[in-house]
Amino acid sequence: MTGRPSQPVTFPPAKPLPWWRRPSVVLVIVAGGFAALLGLGMYAMRAPGAVSDAAVRAAPSGQGAAQDAVQRVLAAGKPTVVEFGANNCVSCREMKPVLQALARDPRIEVVDVDILKERDYISHYQIRLMPTQVFYNAKGEETGRHMGKISGEDILARLGVAPQNVLSGAPAPRAAL
Questions:
Q1: What are 147-166's pLDDT values in tens digits?
Q2: Measuring CA to CA, which residue among 30, 14, 124, 32 is closest to residue 70?
Q3: Distance from C-alpha of 117 to C-alpha of 163, rounded to nearest angstrom
Q4: Is this prediction's pTM over 0.85?
Q5: Strand order from edge to edge, sheet including 109-114
Q6: What Å distances lie between residue 99 and 34, 60, 174, CA to CA?
Q7: DSSP structure class, residue 118
Q8: Which of 69, 90, 91, 159 has the greatest CB tally within 10 Å of its CB?
Q9: d(CA 121, CA 4)
Q10: Whole-angstrom Cα distance, residue 1 to residue 71?
Q11: Peptide bond connecting 131 to the previous residue in cis, omega within 30 degrees of 0
Q12: Among candidate residues 164, 160, 168, the one with its CA nearest the CA of residue 81
């Protein structure tokens, strides 16, 4: 060797990898794509036209899809009010005594649906607010809707039924502020 002192070997500074070539980014993109495809597949299985597992189990033999509680009551051929609400909704709880008093009237039918327990009703009946009352005539045709609290007299008027003394025991709901 010659008498020159040895110099350390230096390498030029390395360029960072572009973002699309980093393994962690590729992994995140692949996992995100897989999750999106899985979610779309699950969504397609629960599409509005699909029958839920609970409906299939509840269906009597010989029927393709179960008839929900609202449709069963509408088959009775009486004016009907259906309230879609929940037990943890304050306005819904304040409507309970009014609905219970109306349920004693033999001329009409009253249905109270807890949409937090029966979530399929939300999309099927297009519920946007709790409580929502849906009014049906004796033919089972929807005649109107009301969102929020409503008095028993107003419910009877919307059903086209003359008030009786059935409502005397039920307090009128207070208006929401």
A1: 999 999 999 999 988 887 64
A2: 124
A3: 32
A4: no
A5: 109-114, 80-85, 132-136, 142-147
A6: 48, 29, 15
A7: -
A8: 159
A9: 88
A10: 100
A11: yes
A12: 160
